[in-house]
Specification:
Blueprint (H helix, E strand, L loop, with lengths): L6 H12 L15 H11 L11 E6 L2 H22 L2 H7 L10 H4 L2 E8 L15 H18 L3 E2 L8 H7 L5 E10 L15 H4 L35
Antiparallel strand pairs: 1-2, 2-4, 3-4
Helix pairs in contact: 2-6, 3-7
């Protein structure tokens, strides 16, 4: 910790950085060095996990042909989703985001980081191959990856085509690795934009003890906000 900053100062600084995060669906061709992706994945690898089994694999894809194959396969599933799999409520909720079956960002982004969850421990030194709390563990690591990318000044998108079995096939992954999420990583295109979407205020996502508001003892005290001060300061958006 920086001796010149209190824990509150550090937390406020981190909040300021993270609340400017916006999902991006249009990327520039500005390159991102592999060493930076390695650092982001190493950061994700510090996440806690059930029995320390670390049941994740991060596959970093930069090859243009592989990205093309991933896009084509993903769009097959996405067309099925928009045409028949999603109910009307789901499509209504997606409408403000302006999403559709076309996923050009899967080719545009300089990197696709495909996260796989491991259904068994494949480390040879382990006494057993069981894994525990896999979804929770991989979810935490994924969140830490997204935060690290934001701190590094990069833009990301969480993309979850369903089903995702094709990702293991395209990338030649073993059967015990199951695709969890695709994260395009890069810099936003100059004309990239997303709809204005609000974050819930703190009093809608936090209660203290048996249900008290965070500032119930001092209602005049202003609360920290997940919203950026200026909603147009950077790109607005939300996870896909």
């Amino acid at each position: 910790m920086n001796d010149d900053q209190s824990p509150s100062d550090l937390a406020d600084s981190f909040l300021k950085t993270l609340r400017s995060r916006r999902s991006v669906r249009s990327f520039s061709d500005r390159p991102v060095p592999q060493v930076l992706i390695e650092t982001l994945i190493a950061t994700a690898g510090t996440a806690p996990s059930g029995a320390n089994k670390q049941p994740w694999r991060f596959v970093a894809v930069q090859d243009a042909d592989l990205k093309r194959r991933i896009r084509l396969a993903a769009e097959v599933e996405e067309r099925k989703f928009y045409e028949s799999r999603a109910n009307e409520d789901w499509l209504t909720d997606l409408a403000p985001l302006g999403t559709n079956a076309e996923k050009p960002f899967l080719e545009e982004a300089p990197w696709l980081v495909v996260i796989f969850k491991l259904n068994r421990d494949d480390e040879p030194v382990r006494k057993t191959d069981q894994v525990y709390y896999v979804n929770e563990s991989v979810g935490i690591a994924t969140g830490m990856f997204l935060a690290a990318a934001q701190v590094a000044g990069l833009s990301t998108l969480t993309h979850t085509p369903s089903p995702m079995k094709f990702l293991g096939e395209v990338l030649g992954r073993p059967e015990h690795e199951r695709a969890y999420m695709v994260i395009p990583v890069g810099y936003p295109a100059p004309d990239s934009s997303s709809p204005d979407l609000e974050r819930k205020p703190l009093e809608r996502i936090m209660v203290v003890d048996d249900g008290a508001a965070p500032n119930s003892s001092d209602p005049k005290r202003s609360l920290p906000s997940s919203m950026a001060p200026d909603q147009r300061d950077g790109l607005a958006g939300s996870p896909e």
